[in-house]
Design a protein that fits this description.
- The structure is a single chain.
- This protein is α/β, with parallel strands linked by helices.
- 41% of the residues lie in helices and 17% in strands.
- It contains nine helices and eight strands.
- The protein has helices at residues 3-27, 46-54, 65-74, 91-94, 107-120, 146-154, 178-195, 210-215, 225-228, and strands spanning 36-40, 59-62, 79-82, 98-104, 124-129, 159-165, 201-203, 220-223.
- Strands 7-6-5-4-3-2-1-8 form an eight-stranded parallel β-sheet.
- The longest helix is centred in the first third of the chain and has 25 residues, at 3-27.
- The radius of gyration is 18 Å and the shape is globular.
- The structure holds pyridoxal-5'-phosphate.
- Pyridoxal-5'-phosphate binds at residues 40, 42, 63, 83-84, 167, 206-208, 222-226.
């Protein structure tokens, strides 16, 4: 496959993904502009990440901070999203590179981000990660704790909570993820009533289940495999 072939294939996948997003929006009577696609580049090369940026997908996500540092250096002019666990000792180097941290999953991290935001005199935009599927192996706050965490976050001027994020349990049938996504939306609605504010974002839905997530109100979907799986690295493609 030549580089042009790889680019054509990727362009085709982006176009088909946008169609699927549009159809899910139509089923839910939503405006497709209300859904941001974050292309998750963790399993792909810098060259392909650059390609998708040049195809107009400007929001890219990485789950590991070190990998994000490398990708962000190699692929500029992108809004980077951190979607995986952030260790506090990697915070200083990561926060300046990202537009949104989706994965705030402990009060200690929340506190450390707040202190960083105060030092920089700029509140750090974050999402609170919620373990709606209640799998013990998953990170995130338990749904029951979220009012308390929100209360705390609102008292911390160095962070700005933009919404909630969750991951559904992996399942063959995407419908199995629906209750998880519905729960995150209901949790957000309860936060709205309780704290008299509006959180703009619900980050939920991956390759397996993004149409269901959109039907349930996702404003950010995080898609990797569906876009990148099996695409050869153009730097090793035959001319
Ligand atoms: C890897 C990852 C994704 C993308 O998953 P795919 O199934 O490859 O689309 C989304 N969210 C998080 C938090 C991830 O780690």
């Amino acid at each position: 496959m030549t580089e042009a072939d790889v680019k054509r294939q990727l362009a085709d996948r982006v176009a088909r993904l946008k169609e699927r997003i549009a159809r899910a929006c139509q089923r839910a009577s939503r405006d497709p502009a209300s859904v941001t696609l974050v292309a998750v580049t963790k399993s792909t090369s810098n060259a392909i990440a650059t390609m998708i940026r040049d195809l107009g997908v400007k929001d890219l996500g990485e789950s590991r901070p070190q990998e994000l540092w490398k990708k962000a250096a190699a692929v500029p002019n992108v809004r980077w999203h951190l979607i995986g666990h952030l260790q506090r000792n990697k915070l200083e180097r990561t926060v300046p590179l990202v537009t949104l941290i989706h994965s705030v999953d402990s009060e200690r991290l929340l506190q450390a981000l707040h202190e960083y935001g105060l030092r920089q005199a700029q509140a750090v935009p974050i999402l609170l990660e919620v373990n709606c599927s209640r799998e013990p192996a998953k990170t995130g706050f338990p749904p029951e704790a979220i009012f308390e965490v929100m209360d705390k976050a609102l008292s911390l001027g160095g962070v700005r909570v933009q919404g909630l994020m969750t991951m559904a349990a992996l399942a063959d049938d995407p419908e199995r993820a629906r209750p998880t996504f519905a729960e995150l939306r209901q949790l957000r609605d309860r936060i709205h009533r309780r704290f008299a504010l509006t959180l703009p974002h619900l980050s939920m839905g991956m390759s397996q289940d993004f149409p269901v997530a959109i039907e349930e109100g996702a404003t950010i979907i995080r898609v990797g495999t569906w876009l990148f799986d099996g695409l050869p690295d153009p730097s090793s493609a035959s001319p």
